[in-house]
Amino acid sequence: MATRSDSNRSEAVTFGFDWVSVALALGGVLLLYYVVPMVSLFLSVPAGDILARMSNPTVVDSARTSLLSASISTVVATLFGLPLAYWLARTDGAVTKAVLAAVVLPLVLPPTVGGIVLLTVFGPGSPLGEAAIAAGFPLTRSLAGVVLAQIFVASPFVVVTAKAAFESVDQTLEYASRSLGKSRLTTARRVTLPLAGPGILAGVTLAFARAIGEFGATMMLAYYPRTMPVQIWVAFIELGLDNAYPVAILLVLIAAAALLILNTVASNPWD
């Protein structure tokens, strides 16, 4: 006796409609939309010209600034983000939801708005900004400003991803460790962190990639020293599109390397 599913399947074959093929075609179009512009970028300028322009001191300085600031902001985001992520993963209620909303908010704010928000706290007209200037450590138009902008936009990736990783850890293992007399810190270090490690590293990698590509908030809060996204904008405005290609390609290569690390971590979880 034929079932209803068999009837539906036969109708699909009769009318020549294959949902799988349609889904693959739609997905293929989107994939091409991602890949074709990237390939076009690398083919827009001869490889020799790109390599020559990458040796330009301004390009080298912007790459150095981006790598240094993104590394610092990622370390700070991880140091402060992991405790917050663990607390969010192990608590529930209205306060937890409000804190999580505050963490996610920088992800949905336009980066330039994020920069304006930061200027109200760290800008020259703010008490904190004036105090920093008086101490000889300005928080705008400086490396500190770049790091502050990157932390604001990138740290949520650490918190949100680590929260999910901590939630995936079986709490009975933590309870067993505590029942054996281990402290909460020892339990976190020997049980929780190793099990949540791949997810945490994924979040750290995403935060680094987001930080190194930050533009809007950095433009508002710092501008100098120039990071790679800012240098791309300056080269485009002052010298035209061709001069922006080398830094853009370098930024794409670094982002691709970050994604390679992410995929490697995801496919090789810690023991």
From TrEMBL:
Q: Where does this one sit in the cell?
A: Cell membrane
Show the coiled coil region(s).
none
Name the UniProt key words of this record, in alphabetical order.
Cell membrane, Membrane, Molybdenum, Transmembrane, Transmembrane helix, Transport
Oxidoreductase among keywords: no
The terms describing its cellular component in GO are: plasma membrane
| Record-annotated ABC transmembrane type-1 domain positions | 63-266
- Report the transmembrane regions from the record: 12-36, 67-87, 99-122, 142-162, 199-224, 244-266
This protein's record includes keyword Lyase? no
Taken from the record, one Pfam family name reads BPD_transp_1
Membrane topology annotation: Multi-pass membrane protein
Give the similarity note: Belongs to the binding-protein-dependent transport system permease family.
Task: List the protein's name.
Answer: Molybdate ABC transporter permease subunit
